Amino acid sequence: QVQLVESGGGLVQAGGSLRLSCAASGSIFSINAMGWYRQAPGKQRELVAAITGGGSTNYADSVKGRFTISRDVAKNTVYLQTNSLKPEDTAVYYCNAIIRTPAGGSNTYWGQGTQVTVSS
Hints:
This protein is mainly beta. It is built from no helices and eleven strands. Strands 2, 4, 5, 6, 9, 10 and 11 form a seven-stranded mixed beta sheet that branches. Strands 1-3-8-7 form a four-stranded antiparallel beta sheet, with no helix packed on it. The radius of gyration is 14 Å and the shape is elongated.
């Protein structure tokens, strides 16, 4: 069993910052990649940022230069530093991880989501 637990969401004014965290726990052999997605009301879930096991990163164009993804391998934790937040960043943010279990298989896991609300 693998769990992803997110924290750090909240209400912030435009221009503000939040730091989201996501910790993976359970039956983990290795983590191939971790990332953050978001889903705003009435919209599809979209990739915000991702980081591979080797540290390569990928960002949505809409957040480049404002958001930074990082990872603490020892803690099985991924972070998303969000700066210069805009009202259009308002969404539920979901943590995602591709995890290899001791049994040998790789699966994709999701966190429960954390709400980020940016007021204008």
